[in-house]
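Protocol step 4 of 5: obtain the predicted structure for the target chain.
Materials: sequence only (see below). No template structures provided, no constraints applied. The aim of this step is simply to have a reference model before the mutagenesis design in step 5. Sequence pasted as it appears in the construct record:
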Amino acid sequence: MAKKTFGIDFGTSTIKVYKTGDGIILLEKNAVSTVGKEKKPVAIGEKAYEMYEKAPPSIHVCLPLSRGVVSHLEDMTALWNFMGKMISGKKKMSRCQFYIAVPADITEVEKQAYSKIITMSESKPQKVCLIDKPIADAYGLGLDIEKSRGILIVNLGADTTEISILSLGGIVVSKLVPYGGNDFDRAIQNYVRKEYNFVIGLKTAEQLKIKLVSTMETDQTATVVGRDVLKGLPGKVTISSKEIYPLVKDIFYSIATQIKSMLERTPPEISTEITHNGIFLAGGTSFTSGLDQFFANEVNVRVNTTTSAQKTVVAGIGYLSEHPKLAAKYAVPLE
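Step 4 output (structure tokens):
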């Protein structure tokens, strides 16, 4: 085994890194700010995300992952170079071993892009292994996937929802659905502009989502600052949960429909076990108020939640990095 081993979850919203022996050592926003044609980084992670929607035209702020795939490889590599220096300090990060969690339902070419983030970087890895996210999720949730005959995990992320069924240590089926928390943000932003002639940024829309989005109408309200389109001046507007609910309910029902559709195609022996074990929710969007009960009612299966839903993938990939012989069973071969 390499002297230093790392497990990485390159999430759409946040990068999470696990170091063997030390646990989770890094949680940073997946954002990079660059200038010029050479795309020289000027800010990375949290600092870059703070510049999002605020930076002048000369500075390009990029969120390099989209819908579960690497959309800007050069920016992602620059971001990792910076974070590698954060992790290693004065010492160069070289001859290390990396385990990277990747969505199961993407093409082999798209999976290889994740490995290139490391191989094209300054890290000079000794070895790079790709592990499908549903496997990492299961281990992060503390599930015994080797013996279980039916596990259903729904990972609700920022840009995607990955619905996976596992049995006896393998993935039976996995589907990456293009719905996530960012879709709530965009729907809220568009609604406020259309209904109130009021412009807010996506980060402001995200704050509204956190406060108001629920699987049912509530009496909660929130006031946000933005720009009045008609007056062209800054102003405030108050939004209620009852206004937001119609914007997001279709996404809830669409995900529930996908879960039901997958269960309908599952062999009876496995679906019986899933009914016994219940559905497991993971991912940051799973914290949406009432979502667990909503899915339980729609699918008619008990739903399990966890307070560490945002960290299950990195915890699982970290566990596998600590047990390389076990991880070798799940490694996706690199070309």
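Step 4 remarks: The CA atoms of residues 45 and 105 lie 27 Å apart. The chain has a mean pLDDT of 92.
Proceed to step 5.
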